[in-house]
Amino acid sequence: MNTILPCAQALLYTLMGLMPSPYQNKSFKAVLAMFWEPQRVALPEHCVIKSAAALSRFMNKYGWPTRAVIRATRRQVLKELLNYAPRGKRPHLQVIIDLTTLEKQGKFKAFTELIQILNGKRGLQIVVMYLVVGAWRVPWAFRPWRGKDTVTPAQLGLKITPYATEKT
Asked: Are 144 and 113 in contact (CB under 8 A)?
């Protein structure tokens, strides 16, 4: 992980190759460009390459290979973690399970069973599994927590733990 640029470029070219159409490839590049601009807010309205409506269609309406994108990203991250060799002691792999709230406001009819109030915060409660090696903390798997009368966040975390060892 000494030089992250070649690894990031390889991953981006892989992800661009996964887009099913040239239109989606251009939209994907526009989304990436929004995040690359220094000192900018990554909002679709501020994109100069594609309209906000086109980016909304890309993210919400058109089908794109989400699982293939996740697999390719995991493969690249795993490759980098395995090649990570700092000086001194060998790094240990830590698995951290965390309950995170993505705060939401307004009405979400399609997601009423997923939007909960926990610790005074209304939103989507997600149990996230992170892999930690040295200074690197990578989100690896997640599951939405459905609230009361379901499995606890700790039990849900144990259910997603096998994903740390699955081959991608």
From this structure: no
Q: What is the DSSP string of 53-73?
A: HHHHHHHHTS---HHHHHHHH
Domain count, the chain: 1
- Would you say residue 45 lies in a domain? no
Q: Is residue 74 part of a domain?
A: no
Show pLDDT as tens, one digit a residue, over the chain (168 residues).
456 678 778 888 888 889 988 888 888 888 888 877 766 667 777 777 888 888 888 888 888 888 898 889 888 888 888 777 777 777 788 889 998 888 877 777 777 778 887 788 888 889 999 988 888 888 888 898 887 788 888 888 888 887 655 655
Separate counts of helices (H) and strands (E) for the chain: 5, 4
Determine the structural domain holding residue 114 and report its residue range: 88-163
Is 118 a domain residue? yes
In a domain, 24, yes or no: no
Measured N-to-C along each axis, helices 4-18 and 22-36 cross at an angle, to the nearest 10 degrees, of: 150
How far apart, in Å, do the first and last CA atoms of the chain sit?
A: 20
